[in-house]
Amino acid sequence: MGKITQRLLAVLILAISTGLLVIFTNFHAIAVFDQSETLIQKSHPLPSTLAQWEDKTNSSDYFEQIKPTPVGYLIWSRFPVRVKVETPRGINQQQGEIWVKSVLQAIEEWDVYLPLQVVEQREIADITIVRKAPALQVEPNSKIPRARSALTTYELYTENNILSHRFTILLSPSQTGDYLKAAARHEIGHALGIWGHSSLPTDALYFSQVRNPPNISARDVNTLKRVYEQPTNLGWPISEKS
């Protein structure tokens, strides 16, 4: 079996900036393989929660806005997806409990559609959520840095010769109340595979913050289901060329 010559890294950023502008930045993935290694891209069986999903509203989806990555769509194939919510730092216990409660509520909302499990150990987490301000974003053709209210990144790694991924979500301390829950809901949607944005403000993955944040919509779930019907390299072995 060929050995990967460099740890697989891929960082793509989907961020909500403060105010109403959302910044979407795509950094090229870095994945260096031995020439003897290949990746298999296939689809996985739908998780039961999505297989059983029925849209009684006959809503559409926004799948065309979802961007495949260099390794295909960001699909989880092992369930439940394990989520670690880091204990907030720099605030008192009561504020910290309120913050954690809001994030846990967003996790519970998505758990209806994909099985999620909150874990205590960060080292086993598939998704880690942290109360931390993302780095400032400099827009193209602008020298003025812009603050962001949330940031989602992922990295690739191998485990037992299987190509896997993990996510980190940063939620800015500036986010509180319903806006915190909305930001968590939005970013978790990205981490579950919706690697793009909706153009409708009634969807949780709408590209901008709104005055009255929406819940997870039928369109969000329809899009998630279509994502999970797509092929990916994730969850499949890295095999040796013959």
What does this structure look like?
There is one protein chain. The chain is an alpha/beta fold. It has one domain: 3-Layer(aba) Sandwich (Collagenase (Catalytic Domain)). It has helices at residues 48-51, 93-111, 177-191, 218-227, and strands spanning 13-17, 22-25, 37-39, 81-85, 116-118, 127-131, 137-138, 145-146, 148-159, 162-171, 238-240. The strands form three sheets. A seven-stranded mixed beta sheet has the order 2-1-9-10-6-4-5, covered by helices on one side. Helix 2 (93-111) packs across helix 3 (177-191). The longest helix is centred in the middle third of the chain and has 19 residues, at 93-111. The protein is globular and about 45 Å long. The model is unreliable at 1-36 (pLDDT under 50).
Number of helices: 4
Into which percent range does the helicity of residues fall?
Answer: 10-25%
Total strands: the figure is 11
Uncertain segments are: 1-36
CATH architecture heading: 3-Layer(aba) Sandwich
For the biggest β-sheet, the strand order reads 2-1-9-10-6-4-5
Q: Which H/E pattern describes the elements?
A: EEEHEHEEEEEEHHE
Beta-strand percent range: 15-25%
Q: Under the CATH scheme, which class?
A: Alpha Beta
Q: Would you identify the CATH H-level superfamily? A: Collagenase (Catalytic Domain)
Mean pLDDT reading: 85
Q: Which class best fits the helix and strand makeup?
A: alpha/beta
Task: Examine the coordinates and then state which fold CATH places here, giving the name of the CATH topology.
Answer: Collagenase (Catalytic Domain)
What general form does the structure show? globular
Major β-sheet annotation: 7 strands, mixed
**Rg:** 18 Å
> How far is it from the N-terminal to the C-terminal residue, by CA?
11 Å
Quickly count the domains. Answer: 1
